[in-house]
Each structure stands twice: as C-alpha cells, then as structure tokens.
Amino acid sequence: MSTDPVWPEEIFTDLDRSGPVPLYFQISSRLERAIREGVIPAGARLENEISIGERLGLSRPTVRRAIQELVNKGLLVRRRGIGTQVVQARVSRPVELTSLHEDLTRAGHRPSTRVLSLERIAADEHEAQRLQVEPGTEITRLRRLRSTDGTPMAVLENLLPPEFTDITAETLEAHGLYELLRKRGVTIKIANQVIGARRTHGDEHELLDIPKGSPLLTMDRVAFDHGGRVIEAGHHCYRPDLYSFETTLVSR
Amino acid sequence: MSTDPVWPEEIFTDLDRSGPVPLYFQISSRLERAIREGVIPAGARLENEISIGERLGLSRPTVRRAIQELVNKGLLVRRRGIGTQVVQARVSRPVELTSLHEDLTRAGHRPSTRVLSLERIAADEHEAQRLQVEPGTEITRLRRLRSTDGTPMAVLENLLPPEFTDITAETLEAHGLYELLRKRGVTIKIANQVIGARRTHGDEHELLDIPKGSPLLTMDRVAFDHGGRVIEAGHHCYRPDLYSFETTLVSR
DNA sequence: GAGTGGTCTAGACCACTGA
DNA sequence: CAGTGGTCTAGACCACTCG
C-alpha cells in the first residue's frame, strides 16, 4: 500500500446505466484512453478489482471483465497475488478484421483507389474452390490499385460470390470494399489470412512503380459470414517499403 | 427444437473438480477436440448454455466462459436469439506467442539449428534502444540458421540483455531460444511483432540456398516480461517458399 | 497474515430472433 | 410468443505473492 494506485476521479464520471453501451465497455474504453494518453502512466498499479467496483458502484465481475479487455489488448498485465499494472511496452495496433482502406483512413492518410478491372466471369476451378461455389458460377473478379497520398502502395485482387454482381467501379473508387459490404448488411464473422512474400509478377512492378522482380509482401484472405459462407476471397500485394503487418501478442 | 443439438455424452465424462485445471478449461478443451475431430460436425448447433450447465452440473457463467474460449479461437459462432453453431470455415492456427522451433516441432517436423555466431558485445546505440538498455552495456548477439528436415529455412538474429550472457552454442543447437528462457523461469508476457518483406542482404542468400536478391519474409519481434523489461529482440528472415504466417481473425 | 487475482455459484433482467 | 445469448449482481472459496 505504499504506492498510491489511484487515478483522476473524472475518468469514470457519467457512466450510463440505461443506454445500450455495456458498463464493462464504458469502463474499459475510458481506461484505455487514459492509458494511451498517459493520464495513467506506464508501470502504474491499478487498484484491486473489488475496491474499483465499490468506488464505481459495480460488481466485481463487471470490473473484472473491463480489465480483461485491456489485458487481452496487451495494455495491462495481471498477476495473482501482486496486482494489475499498466504495461511498459509500446503497444502496436493488432491485425484486425478491418480493410486496408479503413486502416489507412484511421492512421490519418488519404487513401485513393483506382479500379483496374471489374468483371463478371464464370468461376474456373481454382476460383470456385476459393469461394466455395460450383465451377462455372458467375462471380465478380476485381482488381484495384490502392494509393496513399498519391503513392501506389498495393495491388488488391478480390473475388466476390454471385450475390454481389451489381457493385460498380464508381462506388469502389470512393468507399473501400468492406465498407460497401457492411452497408449491404453483410457481416464478416471470421477470416483466415496467410501472410507471405514473393517477387512481382506481370505488370505489378509498373503499377507499384518499383523495379521488376522486387519483393512484395502478400496477404491472402478468405472472409466468412456467420453461416460459414464465403463473402470475399482476396490476394493482396503490398510494397514492402510502405507497408507491414504489426501485431501485439499476449501470453494466455 | 426440430434439430437435435446434442453430442455424445462421453465427451464430458470425468470432469475433475478438485484438480488444478479449471472447469471451464476442461470443457472448452474437450469441446475443441470434439470439433476438430469432427465428432461435432461443422454447422451443428450446440445446446443452449443453461441446459448444458444443468447436464454437467455447472453454473451458466462457467459454461459460458468455456464457450467464449472457442468463440475467440474462431471455432464457434454465437448469435443472440439464435444459438451457438460450429463454424463451417476451416480454422488455421493463430499467430501465437511461441517460437519457430516449437511451431515446427508441433507440426511434425524435425527442426535443426546451426549457431553461426554467438558473441558478447557492447551494445551500440541501435541495439541498446531495441533492448532498452544503456549503450555500451554488455549484451549477447546471436545468429542462427534454422533448417527443417535438412533444408535451410530461416536466418535468426537475436539480441539478449545482460542477464543471459551465459547461454552456450551447444544448448542453443538442441533446444530453441524460448525453451531455454522458459527453463530459466523467464516468462514472456507480451511481444510486439512486425511482419514485412525485403531482398536478401549479405550472405543470407548463401545460407538459405536461394538466388542473391531474392525476396525474404521478415519478422521483427521484441518480447517483454511482466514488468515491461525486454527479454529478447529478434530480426528473423524466412524463405518465403517455405514459410508464411497464418492467422484466423474473429469479429468482436 | 494480509492482499491480490483466478475461479465458481445461483440467481436476475434485458434485447434479439424466429415461428 | 418462447427461446436464445448479452449483461449484471452479490456473494464464495482458493492459490499465489509479499512482508
């Protein structure tokens, strides 16, 4: 009890018990902001779960769940018999279920997209397998060039199942694929990703303005809805000098 | 209630209420095995949480926690008002807080390691910053070649802080770095990773038996203990035809 | 021994879904 | 409407760490 594991009271004013936002989420998001802004410094110890609950008028499981969220994000470390501490390590944004377009916008950049091709085709064997449809099914094949602040950054190739054959190039140049899918009520529940590297093929070096045969960082993704249906299958390649994948791993 | 969301009773026999293994973990791990082995098929619906609890003599929060584990792993999908279903999509192993050596062993391969160099040096500015020590501190610099079934696969460069200056090349050729650290009671709590790509430098193409200037998949990692101290900083490069990073992402 | 997080119980009310 | 998961409460006992 020599150290004072407290924080400014005002972090947790105005908890809304009637609205739709869960209490544990209100707690964890405010706590996260306070940590990221340095209001609660790295290495600081939190109060124990029970007294936090008493101060806020919450039960221990609710407080505990809020803290668990930040433990999972790698912002806090809990140790039995010791307490809860703010992590010293700089935390990077995890690989999330978001699109490149959204990642860039959030990072303060202004992404732009050029649709290189947008075709409705009959799926060949390989494409049909990726989308889990019958070969010959009419699907959408899409190829885009994504730039950031005017610099070409990635070539995005995507396959879409039959239900999305009405997407137009104009909307794609303005809005990012995932944003369009969400607007149609399509929810991505799970995605499998494989990250790798290879040389440029075909016209990729011209599109990305790099030497022919240069290394590319690649990401292959298949996204599923709640029923296990494939929503989208993508093969993306990035200029490795402009893009990389960051993750924070937390031991369980 | 038309579908019968049940499973073989024998999955959950022999729950151990006195041992050190939490009940929720016993449930989730057995359930995971049953799903991975196909005993519970993809798309099957689970019973609701309350009746599972009654059948097993457990409270709802305990059952719920077990299910949540598998939702987080991407094996189950829960929807309010609907129920819980086994995911249809094939699930890949997530990027975990494990070493390459352990990943390979678990995948049934026989990794071998050649220690290329193992030096105790005074940290230059850049190395000191990565390990978060003072420049000039005596650290360990380590360079290894990791092969699988005889084929060279990755060049692993690591920096270790002063407390590990007594590690020998012999133990490193047999045991993998993380295994050695764990044996000394060192626990890695958090790691930041950046995955990227670049050309080969220096002698890397010779070591990996690929053309000079070929693409490499790279991973930079800094691992921390519970107190935020750096345990290890690594720069690894992999032959992209032999290695890639797989992840399953689950929407929150 | 005092204090911490880890686990577990037995209820409760609500929001959402489908028939 | 009944059934589902999402949230929340108010306790309890335990294992672990430290002084």
TrEMBL record, chains A, B:
Keyword Chloroplast included in the entry's annotation: no
Statement: the UniProt record of this protein carries the keyword DNA-binding: yes
Gene Ontology BP terms: negative regulation of DNA-templated transcription
Keyword set, alphabetical order: DNA-binding, Transcription, Transcription regulation
GO molecular function: DNA binding; DNA-binding transcription factor activity
Superkingdom of this protein's organism: Bacteria
Domain HTH gntR-type: start-end pairs: 21-89
Record-linked InterPro entries: Bact_HTH_transcr_reg (IPR050679), Chorismate_lyase_/UTRA_dom_sf (IPR028978), Tscrpt_reg_HTH_GntR (IPR000524), UTRA (IPR011663), WH-like_DNA-bd_sf (IPR036388), WH_DNA-bd_sf (IPR036390)
Protein's name in the database: GntR family transcriptional regulator
Species, as recorded: Leucobacter massiliensis
Phylogenetic placement of the source organism: Bacteria, Bacillati, Actinomycetota, Actinomycetes, Micrococcales
